[in-house]
Specification:
Blueprint (H helix, E strand, L loop, with lengths): L5 E9 L6 H10 L4 E3 L12 E3 L6 H4 L10 H17 L11 E6 L5 H14 L8 H4 L4 H10 L5 E4 L5 H13 L5 E8 L4 H8 L29 E9 H7 L4 E10 L8 H11 L9 E3 L6 H15 L5 E3 L12 H15 L16 E2 L11 E7 L4 E9 L3
């Protein structure tokens, strides 16, 4: 680790699997699913009934009161996650110049539920009933802006909108900022599109699971795979320069390498190139990677494609592969940050978590299935693919104490 490394020093997890990093990690190791029947609204008239909801979250208890009616649930979850991550990092924000602190988050759909309610007002009551906060609450950058304002962070701020892959792209941008004038970056992302309007938009992909069996609904890399289960939440991460974290003995792990790519219709996937570029950026060989946290879309074609890429880069069954997201659902802008948080916890504790539910795994990869594997991993690779062609990969390294 050197002074230019990006170290993740704080984790703020808010997902169906837990309201903090340790609760989430316990659920992952136990194979405890947070997926259940949708309760935010009655899903009986929709073809999808299951989702990974953050059931214990109450915005009025977790978010400053004045912000609750001004912002969407997706931002509420991120505000809570940012508070948790900053507390976990143990940083004194007063010790930073306000222009040395930056915010870069990922967002897939913006304030979907807030926008739905305002459109309902427009069509049923008229334009005079549309609230003034509609102009900002739905916007993809609303979460970044609210975190920045709340914590007085006036350095470079932005948002990445690239569906699931955007969560890794946000980390890539955070690393660039730390190599400049920024000393601390709040990054990661959340999503909260489990409302009628949001679910209908998701259905258009044709890749959502229609199963109503919790333990069989989301089966990536399984011969019975029939789509993924949607979810909400994600993880907010605190990124700092390696020199500061090392001097103070803080940090979960180091971001060693990052790369991104894009698939064009009718062309072979660029995912293998992206993975190789992330490893090259980290100055790693494939043999150096101890575990791959797969994107694991749950769609047969995409799973086969990803499995072939992993086998091509690492060799057949050459590296353990896992997809603990089956417990929380696929979280879009929040999914990859949650995978990063899970991978960092795995590096910390020397464990590769398993992928519950899969009984008929695709050949060619070493999918960790029945129980966590204690293999003392030192390097993890996280892969993310976004609907529409986006893809990204991040290599993470363990910090030795």
């Amino acid at each position: 680790m050197n002074g230019k490394d990006m170290v993740i020093t704080g984790l703020g997890v808010v997902a169906a699997t837990g309201m903090d990093a340790e609760e989430h990690w316990e659920s992952v190791l136990a194979g405890k699913s947070g997926i259940g029947r949708i309760s935010h609204f009655d899903p009986s008239s929709y073809p999808v009934a299951l989702a990974g909801e953050v059931g214990e979250f109450s915005a009025r208890e977790r978010v400053p009161r004045q912000l609750v009616p001004q912002t969407d649930r997706w931002t509420h979850l991120a505000l809570y996650g940012a508070e948790s991550a900053l507390a976990d990092a143990g940083v004194d924000l007063a010790a930073f110049d306000e222009y040395e602190m930056a915010v870069v988050t990922s967002s897939s759909s913006g304030g979907t539920e807030f926008g739905q309610h305002e459109m309902e007002q427009l069509y049923t009551q008229g334009p005079g009933w549309v609230g003034v906060y509609q102009s900002i609450a739905w916007f993809y950058a609303a979460t970044t802006g609210q975190i920045s304002i709340r914590h007085g962070m006036r350095g470079p701020c932005g948002v990445i909108s690239a569906e699931q892959a955007g969560g890794l792209d946000a980390l890539g941008q955070a690393r660039r900022l730390l190599r400049g004038q920024s000393r601390l970056v709040v990054t990661g992302g959340t999503d909260a599109s489990l409302c009628p309007y949001g679910l209908v938009a998701q259905l258009s992909s044709g890749m959502l699971s229609r199963s109503e069996q919790v333990d069989r609904a989301y089966l990536p890399f399984d011969s019975d795979a029939a789509g993924y289960v949607p979810g909400e939440g994600g993880a907010i991460l605190i990124a700092e320069r390696g020199e500061s974290a090392r001097a103070e003995g803080r940090g979960y792990g180091v971001v060693l390498g990052y790369a991104a790519g894009f698939d064009l219709p009718g062309r072979p996937t660029s995912l293998a190139r992206t993975v190789r570029r992330a490893l090259a950026d980290a100055r790693l060989d494939p043999d150096d990677v101890d575990v791959v946290y797969a994107d694991a879309m749950g769609d047969p074609r995409h799973d086969q494609e990803e499995a072939e890429v992993i086998a091509e880069v690492f060799g057949p069954s050459g590296v353990p592969v896992t997809a603990p997201k089956v417990l929380s659902g696929r979280l879009y802008g929040g999914g990859a940050p949650l995978d990063v948080a899970t991978a960092l916890l795995g590096l910390r504790d020397g464990v590769v978590p398993h992928t519950p539910g899969v009984t008929r795994p695709l050949p060619g990869i070493d999918l960790v299935r029945e129980a966590p594997r204690e293999s003392a991993p030192r390097v993890a690779l996280v892969i993310a693919r976004g609907y529409g062609g986006f893809n990204a990969a991040v290599a993470l390294g363990r910090i030795d104490r």
